[in-house]
Specification:
The protein is an alpha+beta fold. The chain is built from three helices and three strands; from the N terminus they run ααβββα. Strand 2 and strand 3 form a beta hairpin. It is rod-shaped and about 80 Å long. The chain starts with a helix and ends with a helix.
Length: 100
Amino acid sequence: MPTIYNIKMGVAIMKRTILTISLLFMAFSASAGVLSCDDLKAKIEKKVAGKGVKDYPMVVVSKDTQIKGRVLGSCDKGTMKIIHQKSKAPKSNEATSSGS
């Protein structure tokens, strides 16, 4: 017949096992989501090209860099970020020559 001491020890071991498995799962799931900057940039370019956009300039910079543009994502464990910089539309010659 199990004693109260044996039951308490079994519960303590089970709690430690569950805690250990949970911590390992969280560690592996966090590391699985880390992408290199090249991989993330390629993934974004593929998604943008699928929507028919041809010219979509992106720059990879340090996370501390202050630069104008939209942050598309972070990479290399949060040390870098990918930014979309809007390019200025080229001036057409038709607009300037139509007045003559």
